[in-house]
Amino acid sequence: MTLQPLNNTHIIELMSWFNDQHDITQWAGPYFRYPFTAQTFIEDLNLDVSTSFVLVGQQNVLLAFGQYYQQKNKCHLARLIVNPIRRGEGIAASLIKALCKHGQLNLNVNDCSLFIYKYNRAAVSAYKKLGFKVAANTPENHDLSPLPENCVHMVK
Fold first, then answer.
1. What are phi and psi of 70, to 5 degrees?
2. Would you give the distance in Å from CA 94 to the centre of its chain?
3. Is residue 95 within 8 Å of 79, Cβ to Cβ?
4. Where is the N-acetyltransferase domain (predicted)?
5. Of 145, 134, 119, nearest to 49 (Cα)?
6. Could you say which DSSP state residue 35 is in?
7. What secondary structure letter does DSSP report for 140?
8. Which of 72, 114, 132, 139 could form a disulfide with 127 if both were Cys (CB 3.0 to 4.6 A apart)?
9. Any idea where the domains of the chain sit in the sequence?
10. What letter does residue 120 receive in the DSSP assignment?
């Protein structure tokens, strides 16, 4: 598996991984439009403010996608997703480790963070196994943009 920058071919395949509003909202939050077009999908990815990568396997198979950006002196991971037909193979862990390593080096920070819906138990469990913890309710965390209902901030 290799981490590669996102390209237009990846975007088209990535779009095929979502079947309804619930899938999109769970992945990208409440502001990502659905139904989408190629143009609105690209716009909503916020490629100008987030660094976007894909994890590619043998024969250039698209395995996963994720983004990061700097927030509160942390590498903040966003929009993490594994190819639906490849879930349960440990790909999420590989993606998260690779994005954290790349982001920490690129942004010159030590810690990582992410937002996750509480009801996405599989993802919460995966993040905890990788060392992420629910962030304490501190003044630093109050400065974050308002989180959607049922969303938690996790840090590592």
1. -85, 130
2. 13
3. no
4. 1-156
5. 145
6. S
7. H
8. 132
9. 2-110
10. -
Q: How far apart, in whole angstroms, are the C-alpha atoms of residue 1 and residue 81? A: 15
pLDDT digits (tens, 9 = 90+) for 43-92: 999 999 999 999 999 999 999 999 999 999 999 999 999 999 999 999 99
> Which of the listed CATH numbers 3.90.950.10, 3.20.20.140, 3.40.630.30, 3.20.20.80 matches domain 2-110?
3.40.630.30
Residue with tokens 């143009």: 39
CA angle at residue 126 from 120 to 129, to 5 degrees? 140
Within 10 A of 19 (CB to CB), how many other CB atoms are there?
Answer: 10
- Distances from the Cα of 72 to the Cα of 20, 66, 130, 142, angstroms: 32, 19, 21, 11
Q: Count the residues in the chain.
A: 156
Contact (Cβ atoms closer than 8 angstroms) between residue 18 and residue 34? yes
Sole residue written with tokens 């990502």: 32
